[in-house]
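Record type: monomer structure entry
Structure origin: computed from sequence
Chain ID: A
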Amino acid sequence: MEFLKIAIEEGVATVSINRPPANALSSGLIQEIDRMLDSVENDDSIRVIVLYGEGRFFSAGADIKEFTTVSSGEEFSKLSAAGQDVFERLESFGKPVIAAIHGAALGGGLELAMGCHFRIVTEKAKLGLPELQLGLIPGFAGTQRLPRFVGVAKAAEMLLTSDPITGEEAVRFGLANHAFSDEELLPKTMEMAKKIAKKSPIAMKAALRMLQYTKTDSFHEGVKAEADSFGEVFVSEDAKEGIQAFIEKREPHFKGN
């Protein structure tokens, strides 16, 4: 694979995202995550997956420059739906998937992390959905998963201000399970992953399947509506301005059209 590296130890597959400088989520990287799930699904030597980002970040967001190659709102909605499908597969996967987050998990990076079964973070990691800063909305089910973890009011604050929260805050709000120092992140995550790997694979698969029943029909309806809205917002002048401002590293000037 071009962007993912897999190392296996005591039943745990550590899957490292390696797409410098920020591990931005391109369509190619998302497709590789899907292929990675194909490769480990029926491998009995792998019982737990740990997803980690090489370099400074877990993933600092979607590949915004890739957005400039999309020509229509319909195509943008399809891009959104394709990412949603992979992250839904991740969340409903029959083997536990743990996100080990350092540096930043922003935008699509946080949506990827929220698709994992749970999250371990560094104390100073930054987690957020800053898409509105670009005149866009989250497109990989972030609007539906974030409120499930932090509540509607906190999700609204994070979406509307675009301000991230720290790893310590993420634990307090229910978005992450544990926060450790940078040095402890991987050792502590691996310790937990190896403990889980000793459980019965049959029982784990059944337990993970049962957790999926906590999702209501409105969740799946909301995910579909998000993809549709993602495309609708993309064709606005504000979205064009937000994306261009991001590329030019300046503040956007939105006019409401």
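Annotation 1: The beta strands are 4-9, 12-17, 48-53, 97-101, 104-106, 118-122, 126-128, 165-166, 178-180.
Annotation 2: The mean pLDDT is 96.
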